[in-house]
């Protein structure tokens, strides 16, 4: 692109010089032909330069849009990762809650076994106490008669 600008600057300089000599060689055919060619080249190079700058602008916009797209994709991935992390934590919390409930169930089962054992022991002790009470009552009745 720089060589186009340099070429354009050289041609504009030549065009300026030709205009300076215009009065001296106004009717000369070579001047007209050369001036026409230079004007055509200046026009062509100007159009190419404008087109190249326009294409560079379009390319810059495309690159900016790509960066926005990549930023959007990155943000979307970060959100998806955050959601996945929340789900993982929720699953872990549910698993821990399930383990805690299992422990409570085991504790309750052991307490029920303890209660059943205490109930059985109490029943036996009550049966023994009842038996002793009857024996005492029987002795008292035998002793009182």
Mind explaining what this structure looks like?
It is a single chain. With 145 residues, the chain is mainly α. Helix content is 94%, strand content 0%. It has one domain. The protein has 2 helices and no strands. The chain is rod-shaped. The model has no long low-confidence stretch (mean pLDDT 83).
Structural topology:
Layout: H1 2-21, H2 29-144
Keywords: Coiled coil
Coiled coil: 4-139
Kindly list the characteristics that best describe this protein:
single chain; 145 residues; 2 helices; rod-shaped; mainly alpha
Largest sheet: none
Write down the overall mean pLDDT: 83
- Number of helical elements: 2
Give the percentage of residues in beta strands.
under 5%
Number of domains: 1
The residue fraction in helices comes out at over 70%
Derived from helix and strand composition plus strand pairing, the structural class reads mainly alpha
Task: Count the beta strands.
Answer: 0
Gap between N and C termini: 138 Å
SSE topology string: HH
Shape: rod-shaped
- What does the radius of gyration come to? 53 Å
Q: What is the chains' assembly state?
A: single chain
Low-confidence segments, ≥5 residues, pLDDT <50? none
């Amino acid at each position: 692109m720089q060589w186009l600008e340099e070429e354009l600057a050289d041609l504009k300089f030549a065009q300026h010089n030709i205009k300076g000599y215009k009065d001296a060689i106004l009717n000369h055919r070579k001047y007209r032909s050369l001036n026409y060619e230079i004007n055509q080249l200046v026009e062509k190079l100007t159009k190419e330069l404008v087109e190249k700058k326009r294409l560079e602008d379009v390319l810059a916009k495309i690159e900016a849009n790509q960066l926005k797209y990549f930023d959007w994709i990155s943000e979307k991935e970060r959100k998806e990762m955050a959601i996945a992390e929340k789900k993982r934590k929720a699953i872990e919390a549910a698993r821990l809650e399930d383990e805690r409930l299992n422990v409570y169930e085991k504790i309750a089962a052991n307490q029920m076994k303890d209660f059943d054992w205490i109930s059985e022991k109490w029943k036996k002790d009550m049966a023994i106490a009842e038996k002793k009470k009857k024996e005492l009552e029987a002795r008292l009745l035998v002793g009182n008669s």
